[in-house]
């Protein structure tokens, strides 16, 4: 038997003390998992656009101070009482949905993503911009032996999962528009192509590198968001948090087509003429995720051979990573790696 690995007595975390401030590196005693919880040694944590909304104080449900980060991949290093489904040393993912009540009307209807009493990783409880975190075992994703690179896998935990929920909301479609070609879009484009869907990518006007990136991932067409699509689309997903894109996307879909807003926050949607919605076009949003989404997504991602493009940052460089994301300088996803 190997001697037990040396357990550190404290952990490091990048803490957001209040909105509109820089994250500060802090040290804390290593926490102990309570009943039903596990402690995870973080291997990688993706940086999501939602983290910017938390930094900017745009989410009413966020609590401060908070350790952000909800695209966590790591190894189970302690189990609380009652945890039997996960083993020490096992690689797991921690997604945005941290806990649901299990008994509100939404949970009972199988819509746990809309739970009235949900908790969210890195938003209402501390997340993965850290060397360790505590998570509810029942909401962790077992990554098994299929995902051996924790850095590459981490963007799947939100960008991938929310993208998957949005793609499912689009239904079966031949031509899909994607507005905003960041971390989620670069995964969704691969899944859509795998399903035989043509992808039309719309980026910030003039962002030629994002357009080239979209084409490299199998998009049939890529252009500026103020350009008309060359074909009428069956559905469009808006990942960019820009309300001005809603009427543009509605104008790009055919009769009966659907526009899905996939972000947690968006600037105000401008007034638009009813004719853009007329003829049974639908405008919907997707919120959060369910555990069932996670099960089906990771199977689909493996089937599609999804690969992620990441830029690594050390944990202590979290502010740099957030700035780069805000400035549109990340192609694919930024990922923090504890050093
Ligand atoms: Zn509930
Ligand atoms: Zn996210």
Condensed summary:
With 339 residues, the protein is α/β, with parallel strands linked by helices. Helices cover 23% and strands 27% of the residues.
CATH class categorisation of the largest domain = Alpha Beta
- Number of E-state strands: 17
Rounded mean pLDDT score: 95
What proportion of the residues form beta strands (DSSP E)? 25-35%
Q: State the CATH topology of the largest domain.
A: Quinone Oxidoreductase, Chain A, domain 1
Largest sheet: 7 strands, mixed
Query: So what's the overall shape?
Result: globular
For CATH, the homologous superfamily of the largest domain is named as Medium-chain alcohol dehydrogenases, catalytic domain
Describe the structure.
The two termini are about 30 Å apart. The strands form 4 sheets. Strands 3, 4, 5, 8, 9, 16 and 17 form a 7-stranded mixed beta sheet that branches. Helix 9 (about 320-325) links the parallel strand 16 and strand 17. The protein has helices at about 50-55, 105-110, 150-155, 160-170, 185-195, 210-215, 245-250, 290-305, 320-325; strands at about 10-15, 25-30, 35-45, 70-80, 90-95, 95-100, 120, 130-135, 140, 175-180, 200-205, 220-225, 235-240, 255-260, 280-285, 310-315, 335. It contains 9 helices and 17 strands. Helix 4 crosses helix 5. The chain folds into 2 domains: about 10-155 and about 310-335, Alpha-Beta Complex (Quinone Oxidoreductase, Chain A, domain 1), CATH 3.90.180; about 160-285, 3-Layer(aba) Sandwich (Rossmann fold), CATH 3.40.50.720. The protein is of the alpha/beta class. The site of one zinc ion has 8 residues, from helix 2. The site of one zinc ion (ZN) has 5 residues, from loops.
């Amino acid at each position: 038997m190997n001697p037990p690995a040396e357990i550190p007595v404290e952990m490091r975390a990048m803490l957001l003390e209040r909105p509109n401030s820089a994250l500060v590196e802090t040290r804390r005693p290593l926490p102990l998992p309570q009943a039903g919880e596990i402690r995870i040694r973080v291997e990688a944590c993706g940086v999501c656009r939602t983290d910017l909304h938390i930094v900017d104080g745009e989410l009413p449900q966020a609590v401060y101070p908070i350790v952000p980060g909800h695209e966590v991949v790591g190894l189970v290093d302690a189990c609380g009482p009652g945890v039997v489904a996960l083993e020490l040393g096992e690689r797991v993912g921690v997604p945005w949905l941290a806990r649901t009540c299990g008994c509100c009307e939404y949970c009972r209807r199988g819509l746990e993503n809309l739970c009235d009493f949900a908790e969210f990783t890195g938003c209402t409880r501390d997340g993965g911009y850290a060397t360790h975190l505590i998570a509810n075992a029942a909401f962790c994703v077992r990554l098994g032996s299929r995902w051996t690179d924790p850095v590459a896998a981490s963007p799947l935990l939100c960008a991938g999962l929310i993208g998957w929920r949005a793609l499912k909301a689009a239904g079966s479609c031949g031509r899909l528009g994607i507005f905003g070609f960041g971390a989620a879009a670069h995964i969704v484009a691969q899944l859509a192509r795998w399903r035989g869907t043509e992808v039309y990518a719309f980026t910030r006007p003039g962002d030629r590198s994002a357009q080239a990136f979209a084409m490299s991932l199998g998009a049939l067409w890529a252009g500026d968001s103020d350009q008309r699509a060359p074909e009428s689309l069956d559905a469009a997903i808006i990942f960019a948090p820009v309300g001005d894109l809603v009427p543009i996307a509605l104008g790009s879909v055919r009769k009966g087509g659907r526009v899905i807003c996939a972000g947690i926050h968006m600037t105000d949607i401008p007034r638009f003429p009813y004719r853009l919605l007329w003829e049974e076009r639908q405008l919907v949003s997707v919120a959060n995720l369910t555990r069932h989404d996670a099960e089906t997504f990771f199977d689909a991602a493996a089937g599609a051979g999804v690969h992620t493009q990441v830029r690594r940052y050390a944990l202590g460089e979290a502010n740099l990573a957030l700035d780069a994301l805000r400035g549109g300088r990340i192609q694919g996803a930024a990922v923090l790696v504890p050093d």
